[in-house]
């Protein structure tokens, strides 16, 4: 024993190099009661929140006879994709019986131009407000931001009148115009804050190098601002896709966006309630924003934070 | 109007007439006049907020003056765009375009000027050779070190073949060693190019080493415009005396009677080159720590006094002694090898010919 316990230092009569107590790297923590509690609680809460999704997916994969038996939590005995097919291509709303597909393509036709237009205009707005301050630019900005705080409901009827007068009432383009205008305050704020965070000297250097208003914007600032463009796209796509109010007011059955059509399918008062088709339709409609959240979660959080910073 | 040349500006590269700049009610630059000769290296020196960067931005055309005129190479450029002024500018943060390669950064200005491709290639190649950027041309700025980035920033001004280079604290973001290296490189560049250079800094070492002339600014006003040694030896006022020199000049308060300074020590100002005929009144006597005589030299000095050493700060090449004369701190710089310890009493000598005397009220040199 003795020859093992003594270090060379101790053997030579010198004090041991290593004293009593912790030495070196701290040991990795093991499973403790506290950890079990925490993860257990988190797991339970997540299960609780996932339950509706579980019920929706399961119900959408069952046939109506199986649904009538109850057991909404049980997985389907006989898996069928018929409800999904019906929701997409056959469900009736009013006179049309081509399912959600019509609404999906309407929504795409609304979201794409609205997003492109609002970002194109708002990014130039933000750039001009930061780098080319003009007389009254701060007042202009204040008014623009004020627009974000006016309740939509106040403007619904005036917009109906305006769209009627310019002949866009009921058309997809009328709704594109509305979404572009309503997206302006928040997206301008987003770009203004981002451009304000870029070093001013970069802008000065580009001016000395002879680049003009558009040259600086397109060749210097835009290429280094791709993250904020992605954030703006996420905000606009999810926001416009999920819109119901403007869609139901400013379009007509032929041009209804997907959200309105979904409502019409789910809330139809005639015939048997086809729960499986309703569930499938809801899932299909939610798929676009959901996939965007999932693909770009990090950027999305960043966008929220960027928008929240006061300029 | 831009090509109209003014014969009165012959030999002047940059000429600033009665320049005035206000931000709202705050006046940043006031009636500023400055003539910079062709090929001169002028340093604008001052503490932060003195208006030196503002002045540089006015010359560059990045800030619009409220009043006055700016001429570059004889042309009135007061209303001209930055790119039309024949200037190149180098910034403290380098301000390189992050998504472009070094080559892209160098050629951006030339492309904007719609120069032919082969001319662009020629100029980029020349700048790359002068600044040793050849192997870096295909890299992005993120892959460069601080010193390399600043060389690219200088190159961006170089390719534009400008008459006037503007530097806005270009070395302040670099570490001390690199700063000293690039300082020498800049001086070499100036010697080989013969262009006018205007250089803003708060670092007096950079100012002293680089400048043909230094303009010391305070509160938007030029305090003194002179060659580095002139500023060091004959500061025009108390502010300049205190600003230039590290450690700063020792200042003793007292009175001037006849041509004799009377304070905690009495100094007959024999051999002092008065800026104006001496007048009696409150005055400040200034002498640089390195001009105080000790040891054998002190014994033969015109004025002698005895002080107690409080603190000794050895710095290798030299040693700084902290003492007191009357109420005022008094610093003495001596050779680094001299054996002196805290508590020692030493005799020091003052030579009025190397001192400065200021009016206590106007703070101007007497």
UniProtKB/TrEMBL annotation, chain A:
PANTHER family: ABC TRANSPORTER PERMEASE PROTEIN, GLUCOSE IMPORT SYSTEM PERMEASE PROTEIN GLCU. PROSITE patterns: ABC_TM1 (PS50928). Residues 1-21 are annotated as: Disordered. SUPFAM superfamilies: MetI-like. The keyword Transferase does not apply. The keyword Hydrolase does not apply. This is Glucose/mannose transport system permease protein. It comes from the Bacteria. The chain crosses the membrane at residues 36-57, 104-127, 139-160, 172-195, 216-241, 277-295. It is found in: Cell membrane. Keywords: Membrane, Transmembrane, Transmembrane helix, Transport. Residues 104-296 form the ABC transmembrane type-1 domain. It is a multi-pass membrane protein. Belongs to the binding-protein-dependent transport system permease family. CDD domains: TM_PBP2. Its main location: membrane.
UniProtKB/TrEMBL annotation, chain B:
Residues 14-244 form the ABC transporter domain. SUPFAM superfamilies: MOP-like, P-loop containing nucleoside triphosphate hydrolases. The keyword ATP-binding applies. Coiled coil: none annotated. Pfam families: ABC_tran (PF00005), TOBE_2 (PF08402). It comes from the Bacteria. The keyword Nucleotide-binding applies. Keywords: ATP-binding, Nucleotide-binding, Sugar transport, Transport. GO terms for molecular function: ATP binding. Belongs to the ABC transporter superfamily. PANTHER family: ABC TRANSPORTER ATP-BINDING PROTEIN, MALTODEXTRIN IMPORT ATP-BINDING PROTEIN MSMX. This is Multiple sugar transport system ATP-binding protein.
């Amino acid at each position: 024993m003795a020859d093992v316990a003594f270090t060379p230092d101790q053997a030579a009569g010198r004090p041991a190099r290593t004293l009593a107590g912790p030495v070196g790297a701290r040991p990795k923590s093991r499973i403790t009661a506290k950890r079990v509690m925490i993860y257990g609680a988190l797991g339970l809460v997540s299960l609780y929140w996932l339950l509706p999704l579980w019920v929706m997916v399961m119900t959408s994969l069952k046939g109506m006879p199986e649904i009538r038996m109850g057991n909404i939590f049980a997985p389907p005995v006989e898996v069928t994709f018929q409800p999904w097919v019906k929701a997409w291509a056959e469900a009736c709303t009013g006179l049309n019986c081509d399912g959600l597909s019509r609404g999906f393509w309407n929504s795409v036709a609304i979201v794409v131009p609205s997003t492109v237009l609002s970002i194109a205009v708002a990014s130039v707005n933000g750039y001009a407000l930061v780098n080319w301050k003009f007389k009254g630019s701060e007042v202009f900005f204040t008014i623009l931001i004020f627009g974000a705080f006016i309740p939509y409901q106040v403007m619904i009827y005036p917009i109906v009148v305006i769209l009627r007068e310019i002949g866009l009432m009921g058309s997809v383009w009328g709704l594109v115009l509305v979404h572009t205008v309503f997206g302006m305050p928040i997206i301008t704020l987003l770009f203004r804050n981002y451009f304000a965070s870029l070093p001013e000297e970069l802008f000065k250097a580009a001016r000395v190098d002879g680049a003009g208003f558009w040259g600086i914007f397109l060749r210097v600032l835009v290429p280094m601002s791709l993250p904020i463009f992605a954030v703006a796209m996420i905000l606009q796509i999810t926001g416009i896709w999920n819109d119901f109010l403007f869609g139901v007011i400013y379009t007509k059955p032929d041009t209804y966006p997907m959200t309105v059509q979904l409502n019409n399918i789910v809330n139809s008062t005639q015939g048997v309630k086809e729960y499986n088709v309703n569930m499938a339709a809801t899932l299909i409609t939610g798929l676009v924003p959901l996939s965007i959240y999932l693909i770009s979660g990090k950027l999305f959080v960043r966008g929220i934070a960027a928008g929240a910073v006061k300029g | 109007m831009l090509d109209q040349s003014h014969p009165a500006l012959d030999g002047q590269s940059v000429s600033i007439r009665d320049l005035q700049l206000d931000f709202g009610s705050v006046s940043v630059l006031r009636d500023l006049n400055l003539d910079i000769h062709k090929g001169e290296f002028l340093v604008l020196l001052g503490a932060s907020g003195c208006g030196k960067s503002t002045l540089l931005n006015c010359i560059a055309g990045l800030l619009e003056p409220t009043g006055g005129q700016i001429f570059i190479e004889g042309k009135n450029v007061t209303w001209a765009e930055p790119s039309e002024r024949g200037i190149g500018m180098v910034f403290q943060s380098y301000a390189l375009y992050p998504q472009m390669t070094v080559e892209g950064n160098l050629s951006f200005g030339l492309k904007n000027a719609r120069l032919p491709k082969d001319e662009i290639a020629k100029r980029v190649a020349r700048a790359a050779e002068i600044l040793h950027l050849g192997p870096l041309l295909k890299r992005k700025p993120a892959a460069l070190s601080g010193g390399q980035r600043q060389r690219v920033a200088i190159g961006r001004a170089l390719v534009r073949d400008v008459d006037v280079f503007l530097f806005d604290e270009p070395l302040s973001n670099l570490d001390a060693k690199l700063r000293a290296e690039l300082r020498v490189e800049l001086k070499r560049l100036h010697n080989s190019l013969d262009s006018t250079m205007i250089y803003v800094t708060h670092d007096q070492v950079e100012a002293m080493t680089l400048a043909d002339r230094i303009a010391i600014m305070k509160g938007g006003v030029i305090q003194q415009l002179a060659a580095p040694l002139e500023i060091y030896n004959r500061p025009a006022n108390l502010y300049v005396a205190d600003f230039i020199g590290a450690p700063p000049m020792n200042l003793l308060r007292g009175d001037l009677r006849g041509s004799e300074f009377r304070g905690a020590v009495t100094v007959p100002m024999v051999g002092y080159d008065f800026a104006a005929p001496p007048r009696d009144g409150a005055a400040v006597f200034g002498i640089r720590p390195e001009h105080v005589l000790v040891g054998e030299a002190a014994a033969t000095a015109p004025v002698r006094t005895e002080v107690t050493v409080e603190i000794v700060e050895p710095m290798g090449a030299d040693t700084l002694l902290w003492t007191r004369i009357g109420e005022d701190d008094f610093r003495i710089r001596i050779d680094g090898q001299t054996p002196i310890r805290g508590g020692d009493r030493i005799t020091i000598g003052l030579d009025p010919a190397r001192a400065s005397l200021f009016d206590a009220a106007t703070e101007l040199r007497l």
